[in-house]
Amino acid sequence: MKRLLTILLFLPLISCNDWLDIDPENSVTLTNFFQNENDLESLHTSMLARLQTVCMGKQPYYYMSIDADEQKQSIKGFRELDVAIHTTQTIGNSTLKSTWSNHYAVISLADLMIDNEYRFQNIPAERAAFWLKQAHFVKALTYFRIAQIWGDAPISPNSESLVALAKSPAVDVLKYAAKEAKIALDLPAHDNMQNATGRPITSKQYASRGSVNTLLAQIYAWIGGLTQEKTYWEQAEYYASQVIDEFAGDYELEDMEGLIKNVFGKARNSKETIFCIDNDLLDDAHTYDTHFTGDLPGQEMINYPHINASPQSLSNDNAQQYNRIKVSTVEKIYPDENDLRRKEFWYNLGKVEITVNEESVPSPYAFINKWRDYHYQTNSEMLEGGASVPVATDCDFVIWRLADVILLRAECRTRLNKTEAKNDLDRIRERAGLGAYSGSTEAEALRKEIFNERRRELFGEGQYYFDIVRNGYYREMLYGKFKTLTDEDVRNGALYTWISSDAFEKNTLMTQNTYWLWQK
Q: By C-alpha distance, which of 429, 425, 430, 459 is closest to 443?
C-alpha cells in the first residue's frame, strides 16, 4: 500500500468522541482540503493503512484461534480463560493490542470524510459517491470487528461529537454495521473499479460489491448466532448467495495448487480472494526485524522447515517455547487419508523424522506448510554476521475467500433446515479431493460437520475462535474455564475481550463487561 505518509498528515485532523482521547477536528485545517478527488483517495489510504489492526490485531481471539495441542507458555492462558493473562495485556515483553482505540481511530477517519461531504469541490458526484461508500464500508467492517471482539460498545454519532457515550448492546452495534454496509452495496465489482487517476484498482483491500455482500453475510450470521432468530440466518444466506452465485463479482475456487500459490503465496492474485489486507513488503520494509512474527494465528505455528533448520529441538522442547500440534490431532481433524489438505497444508505429515535413543523415528508433531513464501532479513549488520532469516510471509493476508462464504452459507442453511447445505459442503470437499459427504444430514449433525469442515479448510486463518463462539461450541472445543461457563457468564460477556483501561479515561459512562468486572 503506497503513500502511507498520509497517516502522519491526518493524525492531527482525526477527531472522534472525547473518550477516544483524540482532539476534535479544527474546521480551519479542513478549509483547503477536499478540493479534488486525490484528497479523498489520500484520506481513504489512511484508513486502509490502519485496517490491518482492525482485522488482524493480536487480541485474545487471535491466540485462542491458534489451533494447537500445546501453546507457548506465555499465551496458553488465553484459551483457558485465565483472568490474569487476559487482563495484564502483555505477551512476554510486548503489549497485547487489546485496546479498541485504533478501531475507533479508523471510524473517526471514515466519519471525517462522510461528515465533510459538503466541503467537496471539483469532484464529480459519481466519484465522490465511490469514496464515500468506501468510507461507509470501513465503518461497517470496524464496528463488526468491535462487536465480535468486545461485544457491547459505544456507537459514535459523528466525527465532532465530544459527549461521553454509554455502550450499546452488541446486537445494536451489529445492526448499525449492517446499515453502514448497505450504503456501499452498489459499489462496482472488484474487477471494475478505478482510482482517482482512472487506473484500475487491483487491491482487494478496497471495498467492492463482493466484499460488501460478504461483510453483510458475516454480520447477519453473527447476529443469528447471538439471537438464534431465523430472519438473520435468512439474511446471511441471501448475502452469501449474492457472492457465490456471481451477482456480486466473478469469484471462483482455486485448485489446490492455485490455493497455495495464489491465495497464500506471493502471487497475490486469485479469483478466490474476496477481501484481504495488502502486505507490501516495500512499504513495511522489516528493516530492523530479526525474528519471524506471524500475522495470522496459523502463522504462529510456522517453524520447521521454514524457520527452524531441524525438527529435533521443536520435538524435544519441554519448556513450551513453541506452539505445537500433534500428527495424531491433524489426522483427527482431517480424518480422510485422501484429503489433499493433509499434503498441501502440512509438511510431510507423519514422515518427518527425529532421533530418539540414537534411532530415527517419526516426530509426534505436525508442521504447518500452508504459507511457503517468505521475506528474509539479509542485512549482515542486523544479523551480526549470521545467515539470513525469514521475518515475514511474502503474501497478502486473506480475511475472506470464497470457500469461507460457501461454508458460511452451508451453516446458515442448516439453521434453516435446508437440504442445500450439503451441496455447499460437498463443493469444498470436492476441491479437497474427497467424495460427497455421506454422514447424517440431520440439521445439528450437519452443522457440526460444516464446523469441522471450516476448521479443516480455514485452518490458521483467524476464523476458528469466532466459529466456535457463533456455533456455541466453546465448552466442547476450548479449554480451562471455558468448559464450565454458565449461560449467565456468557450473557455477561465471558466470550468477549476485557475492555482496556484506556476506554475509561475520559468516558464517565463506560462500563466493564460484567463477567470481567466480577472476575477482577
A: 425
Q: Where are the alpha helices (DSSP H) in 354-396?
A: 380-383
Which ranges in 228-334 belong to alpha helices (H)? 230-244, 256-258, 312-316, 327-333
Domain match, 326 and 473 both: no
What are the tens digits of pLDDT across the range 287-336? 888 888 889 999 999 999 998 878 998 888 876 888 999 999 999 999 99
Report helix, strand or coil for 390: strand
Contact 375, 391 (CB under 8 A): yes
Residues 457 and 507 in one domain: no
CB 427 within 8 A of CB 329: no
Amino acid identity at 225: G
Give tens-digit pLDDT for 194-205. Answer: 999 999 999 999
**pLDDT averaged over every residue in the chain:** 89
CA distance 49 to 11: 12
Domain of 89, CATH number, reads 1.25.40
Using CA atoms, how far residue 16 sits from 58, 136, 162, 500, in Å, is: 24, 16, 7, 18
The radius of gyration computed from the CA coordinates of the chain, to the nearest angstrom, equals 23
CA distance 345 to 178: 34
CA dist list (Å): 276 to 64, 87, 119, 273, 399:
21, 30, 31, 7, 5
Could you tell me if 2 and 144 lie in one domain?
A: yes
The distance in angstroms from the start CA to the end CA of the chain is 41
Residue 75's pLDDT band, with cuts at 50, 70 and 90, is confident
CB neighbours of 441 closer than 8 A, spacing ≥ 6? Answer: 419, 422
Helices and strands of the chain, counted as H and E runs: 22, 10
- DSSP-assigned letters across all residues of 25-48: P-GGGGTT-SSSHHHHHHHHHHHH
Are residue 46 and residue 84 in the same domain, yes or no?
yes
Please give the residue range of the domain that contains residue 371.
Answer: 297-398
For 118-186, give the DSSP string.
Answer: GG--S--HHHHHHHHHHHHHHHHHHHHHHHHHHSSB-----TT--S--PPBPHHHHHHHHHHHHHHTTT
Return the sign of the alpha-carbon dihedral for residues 328, 330, 334, 340: negative
- For 333, the grid coordinates are 481433524
